[in-house]
Amino acid sequence: MTWRDAYSGMSSDNIKGLVLALSSSLFIGSSFIVKKKGLKKAAVSGLRAGSGGYSYLYEPLWWVGMITMVIGEVANFAAYAFAPAILVTPLGALSIIISAVLAHIILREKLHIFGVLGCALCVVGSTTIVLHAPQERAIESVAEVWDLATAPAFVLYSVLVLVAVFILVIHYIPLYGQTHVMCYIGVCSLVGSLSVMSVKGLGIALKLTFSGMNQLVYPQTWAFTFFVMLCIMTQMNYLNKALDTFNTAVVSPIYYVMFTSLTILASVIMFKDWDGQDPTQIITELCGFVTILSGTFLLHKTKDMVDGSVRLPKYMDEEDGVCHEGIPLRRHDSANMRLP
Length: 340
Hints:
Blueprint lengths: L2 H4 L5 H34 L14 H23 L2 H4 L4 H13 L7 H20 L9 H8 L2 H25 L4 H30 L8 H27 L2 H24 L7 H23 L3 E2 L2 E2 L3 E3 L6 E3 L8 H4 L3
Antiparallel strand pairs: 1-2, 3-4
Helix pairs in contact: 2-3, 2-5, 3-9, 5-6, 5-12, 6-12, 7-9, 8-9, 9-10, 9-11, 11-12
């Protein structure tokens, strides 16, 4: 029995999507570390991104991180053209593993044995989802994807998302954006779920075009292109604000959980991924997803554990002036992060 025979249950398109998704995690996981260092350097000489500044645009290190992320996003973009979102999106947890390993090497953050266990849980959960993911549905034109996007159920979901984003941006972010991480992350995650659906529509159009069926003549292709650009710019803007304002250990797991959950929900509504699966397969996929969530939180919760005990840094809360121990919700300058 050959390797392909052993995995005959996974279509060739799903395998291509899997390889692309794994490559994407490698690049995106690296970009978080590089961009974070770039944002820190930019904050020294200009207004921080969390305070509305854009000095990071003049920081070369930030652009290196951005280019790395773009490469990862291109690979992720291509993955959605071949495999369903239920398969591709949860694999983003592997980028967290990459970030943890690079943080250990570059930022000198110790990776405790429980952090290693968290990484292992992410791998197990990802493997479970990969082996039970639904097959990519056969689509022969971008017009067919547009019909799915304009179906009543997905239109209702899109309207609810846009209303929620509008409320967050207009009302909650001006009042609570600097103190509540869910404001920025909520916008990123909600817009991100629509972004992935647009990316998948555009990716399918390009895949069909490269296979000889030109989809560039259809206005739907350019509509998906416009939505992709708009959504990605919105995501990057608010993700930069979140990373600069709050601790990465807080931002990363919350963003992953919200973004992945909403994307899977959007995909189930739009592409009806679960229609051809039995309850056992669906429950197994959900168990795999919960396993990934457990590994993600365990990895971040124990990232500062050393030698079997929790040794969390002390920091001074700028609002109440009290010294606390633990991972601060907000990002603090190094002078306030560790007290003697």
